Amino acid sequence: MTNSQRLADLGIELPAVVPPLAAYVPAKRFGELVFTSGQLPVRDGTLLATGKVGADIAPTEAAGLARQCALNALAAVDALVGIDAVVSVVKVVGFVASAPGFNGQPGVINGASELLGEIFGDAGSHARSAVGVSELPLDAPVEVELTVAVG
């Protein structure tokens, strides 16, 4: 089964690529790897939430936002090389705008990781970093970037 067939079976539609906010590209290929720029939880041109996780945003809501970030990253990959070219997810880096004392960043970024497992199965397993930060662009609560191997 191809990745696009798996997406269709799961009822998941990749969104349009989110335009860059500054001087960068959404995704860049180098050899057999594609690196995405950090993606915010944007849908249909709208940032879905703002604020700090653990104060303004509940961790479960933030996990859903991380899922949207991952979908946006996959859209950037799809636009560059086609989603069916992905043979493995290599690395996920997630940033969580965290209220003081919040230390549940891994659970938030699970929203992205679990989506990748649903779509790619074993090929979706990856190395990962989940980092708490004080601020993200546009006051977004979460940002996710991917590195995928393509064939």
TrEMBL record:
SUPFAM superfamilies: YjgF-like (SSF55298)
Endoribonuclease L-PSP/chorismate mutase-like domain sequence ranges: 6-140
InterPro entries, per database record: Endoribo_LPSP/chorism_mut-like, RutC-like_sf
Identification of the protein by name: LysR family transcriptional regulator
